[in-house]
Write a structure and sequence with these properties.
Number of helices: 11
Oligomer: single chain
Structural class: alpha+beta
Mean pLDDT: 80
Largest sheet: 6 strands, antiparallel
Strand content: 5-15%
Low-confidence stretches: 1-47, 215-228
Strand order of the largest sheet: 1-6-2-3-4-5
Distance between the termini: 40 Å
Length: 362
């Protein structure tokens, strides 16, 4: 039996975590004894084929009609998703297809998405989220249409892979080859990281939840207004330009760490020290409250690591800049252009509103 590279990686991750083996369940190739062993393995690893539509752990068909009633904003959806990063006593909600969390939602990928969308409990499965019959999402023709709150769904098992769904937050780079996403994944639980599912040739397709109200602030070709921009949440394991910018801002605040784009132990320790020094909850997570204290207003003539952080963010939007830490004419010009495109006060100064939009709208 052949399996995809993504499945091989997932299974390898389980072995690395101390689990001797994980078996992909293919009922047509197994007898009753093997089926029982596979069920036990799935229960132990919390990873495998998700519950089918007729399971007691899945919202039933006769309940679907009322699930999409009412709307929520993309930012509200993302904020709901974020809650599971720390809902387990400051840690992420663990993954499980057999259990529901305290809020009543199933603890697998589709249960997580159902929670973020405020759908009926315990939540649809992946097939239900993607099915037009459910009336919960609509299929998009291209990933170029993705906006904050949209979904990337692999609802097929034709390649021997497990079904999966992730929440698109924003593009991670100007080339749109990867994006920031929230997901609930086996052996890890709730995760916020960069992904490329659906960008290449795989089983992932883009979908838009019908519950989302108005235009999203997460990507695509639309230009958001400032109030819809949301600070990213960074924590241990996060990677990318946002992390590098946070590190450069910490360096600007006097903390000796490397700006290596990887949120490791040294960065977490610096964040905790910064939070304690500023009367914040010292959880080592850079969320809205920490960003608000961490950012440094920079303008023409300013020099240093805070300027480098701003220049890194501007480059993500396609501006050709040298990350030299010097706020000169080129940086001011890029800032003015960015502010005009995002309906900000075009003063060439990178203050709180511009910082939030730089960090929260890709």
């Amino acid at each position: 039996m052949s399996i995809t590279r993504r499945t091989q990686i997932a299974l390898a991750g389980l072995v690395a975590a101390g689990i001797a083996a994980a078996v992909v369940v293919v009922p047509s190739l197994t007898d009753d004894t093997t089926d029982q062993a596979n069920v036990a393995a799935t229960r132990d690893t919390d990873y495998g084929p998700e519950p089918e539509a007729d399971s007691d752990l899945v919202t039933q068909a006769d309940q679907i009609a009322s699930m999409a009633s009412g709307t929520i904003s993309p930012d509200t959806m993302i904020n709901r998703a974020r809650t599971w990063l720390t809902a387990n006593g400051g840690h992420q909600v663990p993954y499980s297809m057999q259990r529901v969390w305290k809020d009543g939602y199933r603890q697998d990928c589709s249960g997580f998405v159902s929670m973020a969308l405020a759908l009926g409990k315990p939540g649809l499965n992946t097939v239900g989220l993607a099915s037009s019959a459910s009336g919960v999402t609509k299929h998009l023709s291209s990933t170029s249409q993705l906006k904050k709150g949209d979904l990337l769904i692999d609802a097929s098992t034709s390649d021997g892979d497990f079904r999966h769904v992730v929440i698109f937050e924003k593009w991670a780079n100007a080339s749109h080859s990867s994006y920031w996403a929230y997901e609930q994944r086996g052996s890890h639980g709730t995760t916020h990281r960069t992904l490329s599912y659906g960008i290449g040739k795989d089983n992932y397709d883009p979908y838009r939840p019908l519950k989302l109200s108005g235009s999203s602030s997460g990507g695509g070709s639309t230009t958001p207004s400032t109030p819809s921009a949301a600070w990213p949440v960074l924590k241990s394991g996060s990677q990318g330009t946002d992390v590098r910018s946070a590190q450069q801002l910490l360096i600007a605040r006097g903390y000796s760490i490397a700006a290596d784009s990887s949120f490791g132990p040294a960065t977490r320790a610096a964040v905790i020290r910064f939070q304690k020094a500023h009367g914040l909850a010292a959880d080592g997570v850079i969320g809205p409250n920490t960003w608000s204290k961490l950012i440094v207003t920079v303008k023409y003539g300013t020099k240093g690591n805070a300027v480098k952080a701003a220049q890194n963010q501007l480059k993500l939007y396609g501006y050709s800049l040298a990350v030299d830490g010097s706020f000169g004419p080129a940086t001011k010009s890029a800032t003015l252009s960015f502010q005009k495109k995002h309906h900000l006060a075009a003063d060439g100064v990178i203050g709180p509103n511009t910082w939030r939009t730089l960090l929260g709208t890709r």
